[in-house]
Amino acid sequence: MIRWIHLLAAAVWTGGLITLGALVVAVRRSGGDRGVLQAMARQFGRVSWAAMAISVLTGVLQVERLGFDWADGALSLKLTLVVLAAGLAYAHQLTAKRTSPAVRGIIQAVILLLSIGIFGAAVNL
């Protein structure tokens, strides 16, 4: 059950990044104003941070329950990518109002790539 919740929360995080990216492009092309984009980002933040917290909690529970070695290469890579993705997402959230749409897009793409890398590392566990 813990693994299922972990995977669901991780899917919400990564799937949300992909969905938000597609929606932002559609809203911009349709002439949607910045307020709409900001409301989308705030709501995504609420959902995605909850998903990230659940992923981290259930991940730690799995490592402890299944007896993974914290020094394992694939686990270390996954943990490093999680820290990078979460740290970059947090920094992005703090600075988004002051950065250009192009910079925000690049940062969001990097967060998405890190999240996909987390899935890749998880497959090797």
Structure description:
The chain is mainly alpha-helical. The chain has one domain (2-123). Helices cover 86% and strands 0% of the residues. The protein has four helices and no strands. The chain has helices spanning 2-29, 34-66, 73-95, 101-123. The longest helix has 33 residues, at 34-66. It is elongated and about 50 Å long. The two termini are 18 Å apart. The mean pLDDT is 88.
Annotate the secondary structure layout.
Elements: H1 2-29, H2 34-66, H3 73-95, H4 101-123
Compute the CA-based radius of gyration: 16 Å
Mean pLDDT: 88
Count, helices: 4
Number of strands: 0
Overall, the morphology is: elongated
Structural class: mainly alpha
- The helix fraction, in percent, is over 70%
What's a concise summary of this model?
The chain has 125 residues and is mainly alpha-helical. The protein contains 4 helices and no strands. Helix 1 packs antiparallel against helix 4 and helix 3 runs antiparallel to helix 4.
What characteristics describe this protein?
single chain; about 120 residues; mainly alpha; 4 helices; about 85% helix
